[in-house]
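Okay, is this right?
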Amino acid sequence: MSNQNSNTKEMVPMGQKIAFGLGMLANQMFPAALGIFMVVLVENLGMPSWMWGVLFFVPRIVDAFFDPIMGFISDNTKSVWGRRRQYVFIGAIIMGIAFMIMWQLYREDSVLYNFTFFLTFSLIFHIGLSIFSVPYVAMGYEMSDDFHERTSIMAISQWIGQWAWVIAPWFWVVMYDPSWFPNADTATRTLAIWVGSVFMLLAMVPAIFIKSKSTQFDDSLEPLTFRTIGGSLKEILISFKEAFGNKPFRKLCIATFLIFNAFNTVAGFTFFIVVYYLFNGDTAAAGIWPTLFGCCGALATTFIVIPIVAWIAKKMEKKRAFLICQGISIFGYILLWFLFIPGKPYMFLFALPFFSFGIGSLFTLMMSMTADVCDMDELESGKRREGVFGAIYWWMVKFGFAIAGLLTGVIMSAVAFKAGAPTQPEGAVTGLRLFFSGIPILGTLTAMWIMRNYDLTEEKARAIKKELDARKSGS
């Protein structure tokens, strides 16, 4: 066993939870801002929808490929700073600087030049994101050994992280208000500097303030050298196979893949549905309504969903909390079909608290359950592999996110939607609305079916922890 795991960690000081949460705020702000800013590529810089799909797909595939490697590296790092902190710090710098540069796009340049420039720095950004996020998530898994304290850590971090989704939608207001900037691409260049610099600093907070014991003399870790790179790559593949062979973990990964990426396939349609369905293509008339959709949904998640999820998870099993929350979200998606009403944009606000239970509960519960799985794996394998499990979990998320980005462009082309056009072909907006509600409902129902017999209960998790404690005491 590593030194880091020689003592059981249960209750975590609030300051440590907040430090982890500030990292989550950065971890969520970058993709939140990215999703908002991506509209500029088609609306203002003239990129066709296939380019938009490629820019979503390729960097995330590279990111997803790099995640398992990063997980193995962070699990096996011998350092006076421990296994994770240095990577979190370095990754924060890389992704912050790359984010600032990748949005320095000008309409005077050709579409091909802007496409190539953005793709290049987007790849660097996503590699930096992987270097940061994989060790960062693993830090959260190992902060406590207690079944319910893990849910508390993830609930607080998700509560703080949700403020990214409250803040980010207001970028739409700034971007399209001529009193702020002459056009959206100018606004994006400036906003990217602020987002990149401020949230780069917040991403460094866990590396600076979350305690970690030295692993410098831990002989149980795999050596990481150029001479052993072949063996290391083989070990990565073995660890990947063993981790994904864990049945409860496999269910968590597949369910998350379905829910999160069904949501992300259609999330980009929100702006277009509000503008073109509720306001007949008039961006100025739409005003802050696209912003209110994202902002109010995030506020509902922050103040309604996450506290309720944390309460349900303590009163019932985590699996039951998951099934209840996802069922509520399906009701929300159905409501959105009926409550997008031209002339009455305020009506969709009534659906948002229900709709928000889907993504709002997902990572609070799934990250807590993944930490339980890490204990189960340690009991079976004798290894502590939070980095590998976190990397594989987020590999599924990011790989699916890449596919979702590609599908977004495919769906827009299939329904003949033309971003930036003053009017849309007949049926195009209706097609977007059908996909907007239909794909998440289908993905969520499938995920609920997969999770119906998830069996890593609280009783089983506590028995595993008791046996691990006895094993450590005996050693």
The CA atoms of residues 255 and 447 lie 4 Å apart.
